[in-house]
Specification:
globular; mainly alpha
Length: about 290
């Protein structure tokens, strides 16, 4: 039955499900940071993802595949996401605030699209480009509506921080796609990238000589976040293995919408105004344009 469905529709549905997944993870992380600092929590998060994927590896991993060229792309993706992207995003939030950071970081699909065209030979239609720009505009609008007004000033160079975060995320999707083209195993891709990220974050932690905090509930909440993120990473790999970067990347960028909706409908910590509703409608209109291409 699935063979009768357009692969783009399947990839799009999975990408949107991944966005819901990541939106849920953000709320779990919001609870977790009440018990543990974000740096340690990120380490626990990634460690949980890597350990679970490693435990399940006998079910899907072909050891010889780890010596193939496609794995190098998974390694490269793991070097920049989430380790580098989270570091830069954290710096950006501290300097220019969460609203502007989220808004500018939403431009990641543009970077992904340019790289996919240049290195993967993907073709961007006018409709996909329009849909992507609409999605980005909607996400930036939601980020602006959710940000708190501030009178603080920040240096002009700081605007580069969220753009670098967007660039790292934009690069990671084509890298994953390149690897999956040669080795179509989303779980292997997730295992390698998360393991590399864990090594990077672990080395940074050792370099700072910071000890892990005493046992508290934060470990459990961040571990749950790692499980949810792990599902999302595998789902993203499946979507990229089926569909193109220029379709999948903009749809995954809709995560802030589902974060907002889950916060309003489930966690009761968000409010939705008519401008927000307009932004959500705008984003989903962009998604329809991308899917129907």
């Amino acid at each position: 039955m699935l063979s009768l469905i357009d692969p783009v529709i399947i990839a799009a549905a999975i990408a949107l499900a991944v966005s819901v997944n990541f939106g849920l993870a953000s709320h779990v992380q919001h609870i977790a940071v009440d018990h543990m600092d974000a740096g340690t929590g990120t380490l626990v998060n990634i460690a949980t993802t890597a350990l679970i994927l490693a435990a399940l590896s006998p079910l899907y991993l072909v050891p010889e595949s780890l010596l193939t060229i496609p794995v190098a792309y998974f390694v490269a993706a793991g070097l920049i996401v989430p380790s580098l992207s989270i570091t830069v995003s954290t710096m950006s939030v501290k300097i220019i605030g969460p609203g502007l950071t989220a808004g500018l970081a939403a431009t990641s699909p543009i970077f992904a699209m340019v790289i996919a065209v240049l290195f993967l030979g993907e073709i961007v239609t006018a409709q996909i480009l329009l849909g992507t720009l609409i999605v980005i505009a909607g996400v930036m609008l939601i980020a602006g509506l959710r940000s708190r007004s501030t009178t603080s000033t920040w240096p002009l160079w700081a605007i580069a921080l969220p753009l670098v975060a967007a660039l790292t995320r934009g690069i990671s999707h084509p890298m994953m796609k390149l690897g999956l083209t040669g080795l179509p195993s989303p779980m292997t891709a997730a295992l390698v990238s998360s393991s590399v990220s864990l090594v990077v974050l672990g080395l940074v932690r050792l370099g700072t000589r910071r000890r892990l905090p005493a046992w508290n509930r934060g470990y459990l909440w961040f571990a749950l976040c790692g499980i949810i993120n792990g599902v999302g990473i595998v789902g993203m790999g499946i979507a990229l293995s089926i569909g193109s970067v220029i379709v999948v990347s903009p749809l995954i960028a809709t995560t802030p919408v589902f974060t907002l909706l889950l916060g309003y409908l489930v966690f009761r910590r968000e409010t939705i105004t008519w401008p927000t509703v307009a932004a959500i409608v705008l984003i989903f209109a962009g998604c329809v344009l991308i899917i129907l291409r």
